[in-house]
Amino acid sequence: MKTDHIFYRILKELPDTFFELWDESPERADDYRFDAVELKQTAFRIDGVFLPLDEENPVYFAEVQFQKDTKIYLRLFSEIFTYLRESETNLRWRAMILFKSRSIEPTAKQRESVQPLLDSPLVKRIYLNELTVNENSSLGVQIIGLVVARKKQFLEKTTELIDRVKKQFTHEPTRLELLNLLEAIVIAKLPKLSRQELEIMFGVEDLRKTRFAQELIAEGKVEGKTEGKLEGKLETIPPLLSKGFSIEEIAEILQLNAQQIREYVNNMN
To answer: Which of 124, 185, 207, 219: CA 20 to 30 A from 201?
Structure first.
């Protein structure tokens, strides 16, 4: 599961969650723009940065860590100070590190040289397996809890969050963005989940509008253009079948008739 990517999507689409974890007002997110920044003349890229719209506010760095890295703090602070040195303004800074658990954090000896920074108000460490998540938690915190949830609880919690998103967000673009995010988490965490199981969770109509379905449709169109219209479309049938799409659904997606799909499938066997 590409956990880092998922977390940065959560922070980008629900930035108020970051400030909530910092014990600040979620409304502070309105004063920031979430982005990734490249460090000049280095190979470094910082993926999670909240850039202030007003330079009087500090810049916030977010680091997600799900694997043991004894030099995570040295690397992070090196990147932060390089960014600040290259910045044309004298920005103040804060940094949050989100660990999967305490067990993957560097030991006391390994972090001895940076401990004064870690103990300062400039840095906040979050251990996700210790995060309190309940039905009263914000949507963002509940989605973060979903990422680290055990598989036995995962499907139930996902279904509850999908239902909450559908009821709470009537604005379709916002609702679809959040459903796309939940879908990405489900597919990353349970890659063998069938199309039918996804339909039960998301509902047929909403699932067809998500990025997953649109990418499959686009894949069929692109391959149709690059490999010959019909041949290219036919090449996308096996992956669509493997995702659980029915022959009728594939015919609709590829704009072919169902008999063409059946003949192709029969020739595959």
So the answer is: 219
* φ/ψ (deg, to 5) at 168: -85, -30
127 DSSP β-pair partners: 99
Of 157, 95, 155, the C-alpha closest to 126 is 95
Could you tell me where the DSSP H helices lie in the chain? 3-13, 16-21, 72-86, 115-118, 139-147, 151-168, 172-189, 195-202, 204-209, 211-226, 229-235, 237-242, 247-254, 258-268
Measured between alpha carbons, how far is 160 from 174 in angstroms, rounded to an integer? 18
Identify the CATH assignment for 3-147 out of 3.90.550, 1.10.1740, 1.10.3470, 3.40.1350: 3.40.1350
Model confidence pLDDT, tens digit, residues 75-120: 999 999 999 988 877 889 999 999 999 999 999 999 999 999 999 9
Q: Beta-strand (E) ranges in 30-147?
A: 32-38, 45-52, 59-65, 93-99, 123-127
User: Roughly what angle, to the nearest 10 degrees, separates helices 172-189 and 195-202?
Assistant: 140
